[in-house]
Structures are given as structure tokens and as C-alpha cells.
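Exercise 3.2. Students should predict the tertiary structure of the chain below and write it as C-alpha cells, then compare their answer with the key that follows.

Predict this chain's 3D structure.
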Amino acid sequence: MRQRRDNGWIIGSSCGLSSHSSAPREAVQVLWGGWYVRFGLLGDLLIQDESGAAVPLASAHGRALLAALLLAPNRPVSRERLTSALWGDSPPPTAATALSNQVVRLRRVLGPHGGDRLQTVPSGYLLRIGPAELDTEEFIQAVAAADTARRQGDWHGASGSARCALGLWRGTPLGELPLLAEEALPSVRSFEEARLQAAEWFFEAELSLGRHASALVELTRWAALNPLHEGLHAHLVTALYRNGRQADALEAFEGIRARLAEELGVDPGPALRTVHQRVLQADPDFLQPPAPTAAVPQGVAGPAAAPECPTAPEPAEAEPASWPAPAQLPADISDFTGRADGLTALTSRLEAAASSAGTCVLAVSGMGGVGKTALAVHTAHRVRHLFPDGQLYVDLHGFGNAEPREAHDVVARFLGDLDSELRGTPLPTHTDDRSARLRSVLANRRVLLVLDNARDAEQVLPLLPGHGHCAVLITSRTTLTDLPGAVHVPLEPLDVDEQRDLLARVCGAERVNAEPNSALRLLAACGGLPLALRIATARLCSRPSWSLGLLADLLTGDGARLRTLAAGHLSVRTTLASSYLALRDSDDPVERDAARLFRLLGLWPGLMFGIKQASALAERPEHVTAELLETLVDFQLLQSPEPLRYRFHDLLSEFAAESALAEESREDRDTAQVRLMVWYCAALQNAARTLLPGVWRFAVLTEEPAAAPPDFADGPQVTAWCTQELSNITAVVRQAAASSRPDLAWRIASGLTCHMTADWWTGAADECRELALRTAEREDDLLGQALMLERIGVVHGSSDRYPEASDALTAALERAERAGRDNVTTSILKNLAALHNQLGDGKAALAYARRALELDEASREDSVMLTTMAAVHLKMADFASAEAGFRRAAGIWRRHGNLYNTAVALANLGDSLRALGRRDEALAALDEALHINEQLGNLKSTTDCLLITGRTHLHFRQWDEAAAAFQQAVDLAREQRLPAYVQEGIEGLDKLQRLRAGAPPA
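Answer key:
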């Protein structure tokens, strides 16, 4: 009996994972106290206990860890290598702890002796594997045995060992672990090369034993799967000739000769040419295998003896079809380009399905126009020879203008296509009964079913075969997450290289190379959608006088893209609309609500949304909005590049904006936009209050947001959120400036003070403030002007741009006084006092501080005023007053929980104590300030604190400590492009060198 295995090859009995010789098993049981485990890498990762039952290891990281260890059995694997296997180039901050946890879990999976099996070693971890426990080790031994037998002329031994080696394969190694498969590509390739070599030796042995008739079917399949492998094709030509098929043998040779010439530009090698000549000459001696050159005594098992391979029953072969096998695949695309990863993934799964029991269901999903059907049809044509009993195809019309196909009717069509006797005969009236009959018809056949454009899992479930050698390839715009047992293959837009290749193949490389910049603009406008690019290339091909630049200009005009991307019956807008209309016109209220959210999101092109923002926009509870967003992702109308974060493909963004304009009233559009603006204003106000407690008192928001803004635990969380949202905030400020609520532009921008304070990065935030200022000036809004000018002045001052800071703060003061807002005026006066203190003008600083106190007597105990006055005293060398002021200010900032200003007060307190000669107290204050700044990630303040620390060590003649502090400050200042601080640090190092040398200081 023979057993069917991977690649459709009936190779005979196998030494697979479920069959072992007793001696190795007994050895392992002694080694592990009776606990016997089998591991498999030659296919999806497999673990079996001694009864042959699968041992569950559901965690993807746990499976990746075990697989990485099995690739180096009985050898140490470093923690770095394992971390890379689990997380690639982006390990989490807790990777070391997470790896340790995975090791602990894996030891439990490995049974009572898991700790002995999986050992911690100095360089990492080591997994101990016993004899006959790992399929790759057995495979290597079997291939070596086949090689030895072949060299000795022992064709029986070579056949048996090669057959045993090949029987261990169950599919693509590490196919379920793509990250590790990429890392371990050399190892995987070496196994695959050895497998091909074993196959070549097996057929060589079979032909040498005169088994050309029984080997021909499987040899034909192997040759088809490896169209450029000369050794296999030489065996195929030989087998065909010895089976009396000289013409077919010559045709087979001509086929590989043409492929070698076309794809590699080479001629067949000597071995293949020799076989061809002997067939061409009808050599009678070539009809029989040569006589053996060496004999192996019967009953003697030498070193090349094949491993024991117990026989296994062969599945029943299909009865010969009485009806021509259906071949319904649509025409392939002659210039199909790209999709190498998707093509490989689908092809390998289908190849495995054709040779192993159990139906394979593959679901390709992606947005409209992304090329799902093209990929599915191209893949199906590549593997159709593996499904000789037919290829069925149906467009289920799940999306589009046509009525969706009913599974009840499609089953009837399939039954008639597969069996002529069922045509015109009554079929069961219930769909379930029809499906049962379809499963019976398909049970012993190798059929590929391509179910194109499915609406949902319910539409395809009745069409699926049961157990057997069939495969199903489904395409859908929904992800079909509820389709049991399906392997999901999401399809993304083409990358730039794939797009350029397609453009060059259709329009000609010379035309593309002549306009490289215009080609890039054209590709960007098509957004990676093959449909859009094929429409664009069709226009170029039908208009040879057009340049690429002309079409790119047409596509990049405002609102012109979707109108331009149409040719004949092809239209990007129509394709995208079919997904949206399926939701909008659905009977399901959730889907209709998702369509409304799609339109509202279209009011904000380019934004990356979280659930909270979308909740505010849609005015829905967060749990409802989360469901709507995921529905849009399932229908490929939204992308989710990060967990619980969403964005549009840019062509869909344009379509969503069109839909909002067409279907939402002006009032509803405006109200929705304002809701999101108000939400961002509230979020930034929360951020400012968290980062600047005790300082941020001015409430800029006059209404409640439609959804709760985020709550922030601490400053680092605020900084992370502001950094993540900065591009969104910029877009919202820009939109607010042109909306019915222009005041929201400055109300939102004012909250960005917290981001500026956190890391002093001002590029995008500056743009927001400048735009908000221009908007307030246009609306003659004095309060908005005053606040924006004050924020702009503070940013300039924090970045050592003192003249610009003075101009902005002076203008802010004038606007605040005209507006009659004393609280804003007081705040500006405090900042003017701080600025003039920085400029060394203590007199002016005190004057501004006194004016602030006159307006607000309570400011005398205000932490900001205390800090400002203490800084003036420090500048004027009144160190005792400075110390007292900074101590009081630091205490108040601590009570408020304001870490940033606590660190500022402590750093200046340390400087004051240095001048008073109190070294230990000064260094303690500076150490605490440095720790807080590092905790906040505030690099500018960290640099400033290091400079003060260097001066303090220098003051007390601690040379080495001073050198270290100054050098660290210089390095950090250079990284952050703070030239004034670089200069100050260098001057500190120069002074230190002079003092060390005994020279008087400059």
C-alpha cells in the first residue's frame, strides 16, 4: 500500500510523526522518565505525546519560541536570537520578561521533565531532543542513508530511504510563523533543497529498478511543481520513453528547454541533453534500466539500509469521470505583476491540499480594486494541473450592481457541472441536502473551487467540500472572520516597486524611464490599486501622445481623481461604491449606522482615528462606535494599521468625502465637524492640566464634548499622546480656521503648550499657533490674539530666540489689556518678567513682576510668581533670597504634582546653594532635578541641569565629576541641536582644563 503525501506524491509508506521504531522510542523513554514527545517542523509546527495525540500550544509566541529552539536542537540559542524570532525588529520594552514567561509556559507543555529538556545556559536556552523525536533530524539521516545507498548501487535501499525522508513532509516548514520563517530562511531553504535532492534520488532509484510505470504519475506532478529542475525532467523524459510515449517524452524535453531559455537564458545541461538524444534516436537499450553495478546480499542490512517505514493504507482513488472535467477558470492576466508573497502563500497551501487529506479553504480579502480576483485566478491557473478532476468558478456577486447569487442555485449548478447524470434531474429542495450531495460528489475527487466576490461566510458555507483532496479559493471584500477553518490572506495595495513594474510592462519601460518624477506622481495618485493603475495605463496606451506628466496632472487636480480613474466599464468610483452601498442599503441597522460613520469620517481626510474621536464625531457611545469601526474594517472601507486605530486609504477617503457632501446636509456636516473640534479642545485642556497642574487655570472650552476626552495619568502619557496626535491636531486647527467656529482654532492651539513644555519641539505646533493667530486677527478676536501671541512668545523664549519672544509677548500684553482680561494680562506680565530676567535685565524683570502683583495680589503666593522672583534674585546675585524663593516654589509645585516646574525650581535651587557654598545640599537638589527631567524625557532641561551640575562640581574643585557632567551635557546638546548649550559646555571644559593646570581662570 502507498500513502499520499505532500505535493500530491504517492510515495509509499512513511516514517512520519505517527510511526516510530521501538528502539529509539525506548531510548527516549529512559532519557525522559517515560515521557515521550515528537516534534515536527516539516509543515506546521506539530507536537505529539507518546500516544500520538497533539499537545496544544496555542500561543503564537510560544510556537515561535519552540520552533526557533527546534531549528538548533541540543545547541544553545541566544536570547537575542529568540527575541528576534518572537518579535522581529520591534520587540516590546518588556521583551526580556515576556521571553522568560514564554520559556516557563513551554516547560510546562513539555511535561514533567520540561525543566530538564529546556535548560537555561549562559548564552540563552538549550532544548534537548532525544533520538527519533524531531522530524528534521530523521529527515537528514534518511537523506544521508539514501545518498550512501545510491553510491553503493543499492537502489532498493536508496528508494526506501528517500521514500522515508519525503514521507516526513506535511507542508511548508514554518508556514504558520512567517516572521520566524523569514529569519530562518537559510535553514528552510536547505531543507527544501535536500527534499528536492531526495525526490530526484527516489525517482532515479525507481527507474533503475524498472518501476517506470508506477512512478510516472507522481514524477509528472513533481516535474510540474519544479518546472526548471533538470534532474526531475530528465527522469520524466526517461519514464515517458520507457512507457512507450516517445512523442510525449520529446515534448517534455522541449518544454523545459524553452523554459530554461526564456527564464534563465541557458541551454539544458549534459545529462538532460544525453537523455534527449537517446529518446530522439529511439535507442532500444534505453528502454530498460542498466544492469546493476553492485549487488547487496539478500537479507543483509548494510550501512545504507533504509529506516523502518511501516506501511499505511492509501486513500481510495477516485472513480474515472464519465463527464469531461469542468475547466471554468476565467482567462489569466498575461501581464500579471507583483504579489510574490501572496502568490507563494496561496500556491504552497494549494499544493499541500492536493496531496493531503482534508479540504483547504483560502480566503483572500481586500478593498475593492486591490486585485483579489486577479491574484486568485492567476494562482488557480498555476496549480490547475494538481486538480485534474476540474476547476469550478463562480462570481457570487456579493458586491456590485447585480443581485447576489444564492448558494441554493450555485450548488445545483456545480452538481450538474460535475456529473452529467444530475443535469435536469430533480434535486433536493433544501439547501442543506443539496450541499450534502455536493460533498459526496467531491469526496473522491481533486477539484479546485474558486468562489469569487463573496458577500459573507453564509453565502459560501453551503459550497464547501467535506473531507478530501479539494481546495477552495475565496475572494471577498469582507474578512470572513466567521468562516471556520479558513486560512486568511489579506491583500494590501501594491508597493511602489510593484506599481512601477506594472506601469513599465503595460506602457513600456522607455516611456516610464523618460519621466521618472511624473511616473511617481501617477503611482501616488493611483494609491497602489491595480484597478486604478490599469485604468490609467489604458488611457496612456490609447493616447500615445499623452505624457505621464499630463495624466498625473489630471489625477492630482482637486476632486478630479475618481472622475479621471474611469475607462469604459471600469471605474474606481463604482468599485468603491459597491462596498459602501452594501452597508448603506443593508437591512441591518448596525451596517447602516456604519455607513453613516463612513460618511462622517470622510469629513476629515487624512486623519488617524481612535475610538474616542470617532465617538465624538458620530455622537455614539464608545462600545457602539468600536463595533461600527470594526464593521468598516471588515468591509475593507477602513484600514487598521495599529490596534484600535483607523484610517482611510486615500482613494476611499476621497469617496467618503463625496458621499458626505452628497448625503449629509450642510448643517449636519458642520455640526459633526464642530463635535470633533470640541473633543480635541477638551482633550488638550485635560493634557495641559495634567502636565501643568497649578499653572493651567484658563479654561478655553465653553461646551461639553460629545464623547469623553482621554484621562492622563502623568506627564509622559501626555507627551506620548500629543506626539501621536500632533498631525491630527494640526489638521483640526486648519479645519477649524475655515469653519463656522473659527474661535476653536486658537482654543485648540492654546492647549499645545503642554506639548511644547514637554520636549521643546516646535515645528508642527508653531504652524498651529501661527494659523490660529491669523484666524483670530481675521475675526478681530482680541482674546484669541493675546493667548496665541503669549504662547508664541513663550516658545521663542524657551528656544533662546529672545528678540522674537519680546516682540510677541509685548504684542500679547497690548491685546490682553484691550480685551480687559486681567487674568491673561497677569500671565503675560509674569512671562515678560521671566524673559527679561533671562536677558539679564533684573530691573525690568522686577517691574513686570510688580505690575502682575498689582493686578493680582494673590500672585504673591503663586508658584509661577515665586519662581520668577527667585530667578530675578539669582540673576542679581541675591543668593539667599533666591534660595528662599526656589524652596517655597518647589514645595508648591510638589503639592500640585507638577514635575516639570518642580525640576526647574530644584535646578535653580541647586545653583543658588552652590553660590552659597553648600555643596552637599546643592548636589542633592540637582540630582533630584536630573532624575525628574530624565523621567519626563525632557532633554533640554536635562542638558541645562547637567551644565549647572558641572559648574557646581567645578566650584568645589571636583575635577573628574565636573568633566563627566560637562561632557555629557555637550553630547546631549549636540544631539538635540542646542548650540548655546554646546558652547556653554565647551567653555566649562576649557575652564576645568585651565584650573587643573594651575593657570588662573579667565
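Discussion points: The CA atoms of residues 31 and 130 lie 8 Å apart. Residues 1-35, 293-322, 757-762 have pLDDT under 50 and may be disordered.
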